[in-house]
Design brief:
Blueprint: H1 2-7, H2 12-19, H3 32-52, E1 56-62, E2 72-77, H4 81-97, E3 104-106, E4 113-117, E5 121-126, H5 128-134, H6 136-140
Parallel strand pairs: 2-5
Antiparallel strand pairs: 1-2, 3-4, 4-5
């Protein structure tokens, strides 16, 4: 089967997109309940850090089984570049304190959007205008999972 896929036209990235999201496999040797507790603790640290830095409209989304790149997403708003940069820096420090060593940050040099990838949880810090423009809550929110039946023709 892999040999057939290798011969099919298209790049590996396009093939992965066409295949749809992968379901993230549980970590080997770690019970699912322990993984869930770890995610809950990590999310609590993230939300607490953002709220202590006066982030506005903090939203968490559960993406388990819906996205291959993360299990949860946290979205928050900051009013100024300096506030967003401080929130990102403090969040990296707090994640490091709880044992998450590999945290990648994009856009922290003063932009409208900072992304913090902590592996199982991805954090988006926006200025209000950028948050409205990208509308990640609408893109990843649970409303899109609900199937709406089309009305029957009269």
């Amino acid at each position: 089967m892999l040999a057939e896929a290798a011969k099919a036209p298209g790049t590996p990235r396009k093939k992965a997109v066409a295949a749809g999201p992968r379901v993230r496999k549980p970590k080997i040797g770690v019970p699912a309940a322990d993984q869930q507790d770890r995610l809950d603790r990590m999310q609590a640290v993230i939300v607490e850090s953002l709220e202590s830095d006066k982030a506005e409209a903090v939203v968490t989304l559960d993406l388990a089984g819906r996205a291959a790149f993360t299990d949860r997403m946290v979205i928050a708003t900051g009013l100024a570049d300096r506030q967003i940069s401080a929130m990102a820096l403090h969040l990296e420090e707090k994640l490091h304190e709880i044992g998450i060593k590999r945290v990648q940050t994009e856009g922290s040099g003063g932009s409208d959007w900072v992304l913090i990838d902590a592996g199982d949880i991805v954090v988006h810090l926006f200025k209000p205008e950028a948050r409205a423009l990208y509308a990640l809550e609408k893109m990843w929110g649970p409303d899109l999972d609900e199937h709406v039946d089309a009305p029957a023709p009269a």
